[in-house]
Amino acid sequence: MSKLPLIAALAAAGALPAWAEVPRVVTDIAPVHSLTAQVMKGLGEPVLLVQPGQSPHSYALRPSQARALQEAGLVVWVGHALTPWLEKPLDALAEKAETLELLDGDGTIERPYRGAADIMAAVARMEQAQDDHDDHGHDDHDHGDHDGHDHEAAMDDDGHNHDHNGADPHAWLDPENGKVWLGLIAEELAELDPEHAATYRANAAEGQARIDAIETQLKAEVAPMRGVPFVSYHDAFQYFELRYGLQLTGRVTASDASDPSPAHLDALRDRLGELGVRCAFTEPQFDTRLLSAAIAGRDIPILELDPLGRSFEPGPDLYPQLLEAVGGSFAACAATLK
């Protein structure tokens, strides 16, 4: 006699164990997808909305991605400050899903938006600190934990009225946030899927240990860049800069990638010579002709910084590879000084 009717009857009566289904997870950008994929390793694969190389500041969902949001049990995203366009789709399509906004997560290191005036003030403080060091023979300043900003709203030389109390959303570029976010993602999934809680937490701990090892490498690799002036196309790297004591002295566009004013570009050209800028950094997802025009006629090498991991395959390895690549770009700038 077949056992199938008996099994069906037992299942209907609740006599068989109910194996929990791994939640369907949707993520916004590749670094967040990578951290989530690390936590879910061996259990499932999250969906990525914004592919590496595309700007997260503006994006149009494809139909398949809209369906993924409708089917999601959890959406993990940086937050409104990075992808404000995602809020309406979340409300309309993922109303049944849990959401984890990482920028607001417990333990996240959050830096305020900085305007051009903030950057110059930080440069002045760096120069004063160097003078004090030269005068006293030692440096009492901790470069890794000061935000170096004046918290006020002002018209900066981008020509835009920015609120300096807003958050800079590029927080994944501080490796300490990467470790915090692994833990937050693991705990959220453990709550939704208690059966696999131990796996989520073990995967998060493995990812945190890997980041610890990379941080040790990065500290040594980028140390020669301390005090070396550089400019970038997009103000996306302050989390990395402040972690490792680096100093941006100018940028073409602000943190939100808004178009710069002619006055801002003129001021940037003037500062290149005054500050002795040694390197300029482009990004793969933006048209960087404005940066090339700003440094035209000056012997300043153009290198690439990639905040989103465009050249790497999405998955658990992308975030560690991204950190290593950013460190390698700064090291390449330092190598031009020799």
UniProtKB/TrEMBL annotation:
Residue ranges, annotated region (Disordered): 127-173
InterPro entries the UniProt entry points to: Bact_metal-bind_prot9, ZnuA-like
UniProt keywords, alphabetically: Ion transport, Signal, Transport, Zinc, Zinc transport
Leader peptide range in chain numbering: 1-20
Record flagged with keyword Signal: yes
Compositionally biased tracts (Basic and acidic residues): 128-173
Recorded superkingdom: Bacteria
Membership in a protein family: Belongs to the bacterial solute-binding protein 9 family.
PANTHER family hit by this protein: HIGH-AFFINITY ZINC UPTAKE SYSTEM PROTEIN ZNUA (PTHR42953:SF3), HIGH-AFFINITY ZINC UPTAKE SYSTEM PROTEIN ZNUA-RELATED (PTHR42953)
Name of the protein in its database record: High-affinity zinc uptake system protein ZnuA
Organism: Pseudodonghicola flavimaris
